[in-house]
From TrEMBL:
Pfam families: ECF-ribofla_trS. This is ECF transporter S component. It comes from the Bacteria. The chain crosses the membrane at residues 12-32, 44-68, 74-94, 114-139, 151-169.
Amino acid sequence: MNRKRKLDVRDIVFVGVLSSMCTIATTIKIPFGVGAMVHLGSAFLYTMGIVFGGVYAGLAGAIGSGFYDLLMGFSPYTLWSFVIKGIAGLIVGVAAKGLWPEATASSYGAGSKLFVRAFFACILAALWTLCGYILAWWYVTGSFATALGNIPSSLMTSGAGLIVALILGPKLRKLLRR
């Protein structure tokens, strides 16, 4: 069944709520380096990808992270975050759940199969995010050395996100019966 799905009002409301939650999760942070931080935004993004799929996580990551940058004074990073986090959410969601929330558990695994898919999905998203932000930091600061200096914070944020998502994602998915 190859049916095209479009966003409806319910989807837009979900994306709006998830975007605001992504912004809030990103505010829970510890500054580290120049323009970098260890925060819970990635944990939220990875978890929502596992639970709701690529469209919701991608849009929520793009909008929520971009809005965070605008709201908190990181405006040079807004467009970068929009693209980087949007694609990261899409990567996790598609690999762990599917494109849409309605993807069935049988087609995308359950139990240990879900854990393995979610683990590798988070790793791929973390690598994408790291590469994207190295370019962003280099462009915004004008210093490749500064960009490389922010790698530890990116890895710590993604590592924390991976751990939280692998604990919460499958449990929330089962709880919501998605």
